[in-house]
Amino acid sequence: MSIESHTFLEDIDFFLFSLTIFKKETSFSTKEKSMKTVGYLEGTDPLFLTRLTLDGIFTFPLSNGLDNHGKYLGLINQQDNIDVIVGFLHKLMICHSSEQCNKDLFYPCELHRIPIVAVVPKGREVEGKKLLESAFSGKFLCVSPDHLWQTVVDLLNGK
């Protein structure tokens, strides 16, 4: 009986060891330092997101708290490893009655120095910038859809 118990314990020990090795080799919770991540809100162009993926850039769905699209923007942290956030302006400016509401939403972005790229119609970038300035004191850009790709790539490359 002691031999069977010993064999069983060895099997359990080996199994747990194997799980530990497997977890280290296939861990999705950590990423290589060279990999970049773009957080995006609902409505972001799927072809843009696919192009990011094909270029080896992770995409991370985010929620403004009303659409339940992904992780709530107000709760992102350093472990999420988000380098840039992209979304249409109306998804970023959810509280028209209270500037504080939007400031709370953007607090983690300011804390972790994550730039925001707000997508606006061509020719209305200045209006978008004024609106976003009232809610966010961190780095942000308002761009038209045709400038989105280059803007995000420049931010990811530190430009």
Protein architecture, described:
The protein has 159 residues and is an alpha/beta fold. The protein has two domains: 30 residues; 120 residues, Class I glutamine amidotransferase (GATase) domain (Rossmann fold), CATH 3.40.50. Helix content is 43%, strand content 16%. The longest helix has 24 residues. The protein is globular and about 70 Å long. The protein starts with a helix and ends with a helix. 26% of the residues are buried. About 8% of the residues have low confidence.
| Adjacency order of strands in the biggest sheet | 3-2-1-4-5-6
The total number of structural domains is 2
Q: Output the helix-strand order.
A: HEHEEEHHEHEH
CATH architecture annotation of the largest domain: 3-Layer(aba) Sandwich
| CATH class label of the largest domain | Alpha Beta
CATH third-tier fold name of the largest domain: Rossmann fold
Assess the beta-strand content as a share of residues. Answer: 15-25%
Question: Which geometry do the CA atoms define?
Answer: globular
Query: Rounded to an integer, what's the Rg over CA atoms?
Result: 21 Å
Number of strands: 6
Separation of termini? 68 Å
The biggest beta sheet reads:
6 strands, parallel
Weakly predicted, low-confidence segments: 22-33
Total helix count? 6
